[in-house]
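Project outcomes to date are best conveyed with an example. Our students and postdoctoral researchers have been running inverse folding experiments weekly, and each run begins with a structure described purely in tokens. The record below, which covers 248 residues, was selected by the lab manager from last quarter's runs and is presented without edits.
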């Protein structure tokens, strides 16, 4: 039986989040009865899967660690199979406020993908120095690709309508940060539309991020190169058609 038309699959990527995932799942389920939760337990070595299941989530357990992108693709595949028309990523660590899910979903009324963006004058999220430059560079490139102004393109708090779910099942890269950027570029190239809504991010509840400041700076730099490749893919894949046009 397919999911009810107004149901929303909330996909929660989780890697060793036994201390956070229970609260996160409870908060999501309490926010709205139409929210169904799928926790993608990505080869955790702690009790993440059990805590998530006890809290009322469907748990998709991967046999080994694939990274956030691999986990999200798993979640979107599940959404497609179960017939959900809307899905949204919410991190297990508590940074994404379930009270904002509704706002991010509202963006789907006008676009295929809606990004919950930090620092759109809401909240006090701040980055400085090279990280800030890299993020605003990436945002300006992506804004051009998406043909709309985007300010926070590495945010994982993002919703997908039915067309975007299908697109993500076809293509979703696994690399940290590359997952958010490259999937967005591919979606835009496939003709999907993007919008952003302002949200405030909360601090991670327990534990430390999977990447420290040096790790995330390194990944950010890699993403700049990966983005270049993603943009080139488009050039290559459109070239033969252009060639045909000039021949015709
Ligand atoms: N499935 C999966 N989730 C991960 C992995 N690394 C981090 N996460 C989850 O992705 C979310 C964001 O990760 P986090 O380390 O907080 O990254 P940050 O918020 O970008 O600093 C959290 O819910 C993590 O549990 C991973 O390798 N696989
Ligand atoms: Mg986090």
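After processing, the design step wrote out the following sequence:
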């Amino acid at each position: 039986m397919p999911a009810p038309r107004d149901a929303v699959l909330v996909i929660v990527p989780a890697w060793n989040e036994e201390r956070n995932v229970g609260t996160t799942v409870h908060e999501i389920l309490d926010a709205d009865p139409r929210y169904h939760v799928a926790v993608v337990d990505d080869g955790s070595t702690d009790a993440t899967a059990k805590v998530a299941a006890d809290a009322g989530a469907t748990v998709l357990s991967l046999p080994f660690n694939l990274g956030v992108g691999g986990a999200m693709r798993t979640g979107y595949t599940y959404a497609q199979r179960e017939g959900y028309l809307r899905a949204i990523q919410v991190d297990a660590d508590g940074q994404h406020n379930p009270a904002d899910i509704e706002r991010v979903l509202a963006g789907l009324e006008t676009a295929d993908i809606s990004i919950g963006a930090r620092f759109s004058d809401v909240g006090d999220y701040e980055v400085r120095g090279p990280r800030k430059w890299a993020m605003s560079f990436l945002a300006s490139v992506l804004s051009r690709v998406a043909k709309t102004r985007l300010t926070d393109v590495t945010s994982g708090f993002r919703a997908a309508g039915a067309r975007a779910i299908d697109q993500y099942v076809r293509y979703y890269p696994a690399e940290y940060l590359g997952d958010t950027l490259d999937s967005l570029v591919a979606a835009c190239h496939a003709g999907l539309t993007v919008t952003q809504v302002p949200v405030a991010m909360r601090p991670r509840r327990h534990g430390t991020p999977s990447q420290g400041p040096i790790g995330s700076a390194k990944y950010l730099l890699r993403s700049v190169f990966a983005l270049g490749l993603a943009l080139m893919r488009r050039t290559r894949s459109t070239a033969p058609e252009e060639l045909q046009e000039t021949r015709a």
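The CA atoms of residues 242 and 248 lie 10 Å apart. The longest strand covers residues 35-42. The training component of this project remains on track.
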